[in-house]
Specification:
Helices cover 38% and strands 12% of the residues. The chain has 422 residues and is an alpha/beta fold. The protein has three domains: 194 residues, Rossmann fold (3-Layer(aba) Sandwich), CATH 3.40.50; 83 residues, N-(1-d-carboxylethyl)-l-norvaline Dehydrogenase, domain 2 (Orthogonal Bundle), CATH 1.10.1040.10; 133 residues, NAD(P)-binding Rossmann-like Domain (Rossmann fold, 3-Layer(aba) Sandwich), CATH 3.40.50.
Amino acid sequence: MKKIAIIGLGYVGLPLAHAFSARYSVVGFDINEARVKELNEGYDRTLELDEHQMEEALENDMKFTANLDDIADCNIYIVTVPTPIDKDNRPDLTPLVQSSQSIGKVLKKGDVVIYESTVYPGVTEEVCVPELEKTSGLKFNKDFFVGYSPERINPGDKEHTVTKILKVTSGSTPEIAKKVDTLYKSVIVAGTFLASSIKVAEASKVIENTQRDVNIALINELALIFDTMGIDTNEVIDAAATKWNFIKLTPGLVGGHCIGVDPYYLTYKAEELGYKPNLILGARQINNGMGKYIAEQTIKEMIKHDKKVKNANILVLGVTFKEDCPDMRNTKVVDIIEELKSYECQVDVYDPWVDPNEPKQHYTHGIIANPFESEKKYDAIILAVAHQQFKVLARSAYEKLSTSEAVLIDVKGIIENPTWRL
């Protein structure tokens, strides 16, 4: 009988645990005891699962724990921990290594460990497996086995949920690969794709987001060029998109835990092997510079409209990395805020999706109460994230928040006739 432990209960692990709990005995493990307590009480602060789904999971006898002993009787371990980068944009495999060490303490003969965390090709077998062997004292592909099935979670997306996205699978032996594929196929209604090796599966994940990053960088660079020419980029894109094979993307900020991070895993490995990935690194440089550019254009528009800059009051609407989602990991809206502060502007931030009590490890300035219910006026307003709450408001709602003539900076195409839009 299969008993599954999901290691890491964030945006990836929790929906996956919920999906498996419909058919299998599942234990969710996380080192964050506060997170575990909330989940056992039926509350998911990431909002990936609603109250009904949490009730379903608990009714299916799914357990959440921070105690390693509670997963000791499992025979399948699925690792869904973060794989971030450090301040030098180098892969930080610490969560992955520590998770492997923890699993190694309870690993038994015949067990299978499946990794879902995004990595560069080779990490599963060259980094994780040695930790499992060292801690457990067991032999790889003799006593225990591993698989890799890259996560495909889109935070905030209630249409493309985990079971509705085709899943890539792989295993450390042909037999285990088939078992891993069968396991996922039993809950993923969209189906699976069995890769020829773990390295192929690892590489497939990292290039998914690298491709998107490069494509968005092209559009962002075009936006910089057309802005200099005085041409509306979005109008150009609409015209070009009339050709059937044009890929329609829009300029914007590239943050989050995937597109803004994963390419660095590939470039790190490439450079380690002596290859300089100029295109990928160039795309990263362009996308990382967009926050500063938006802030600079805000200052220019304020000057054009005879607005003071030093001590100016500026409102930034939205701070999460994407719309209709509370996820602030690697949000590039912070780059706009920090650049404005370098001009000695006073910046207020409002985001209806962010819990005011959220730990501020991603954003340290705090979130103000709803400005639309306040009398405070602003010299400039930046619509940074396309939350539905902002999209439904008329232009007049933003004008009422403005001092004299409104300076409305639209990053996401939210309103008609903004002062400036990306």
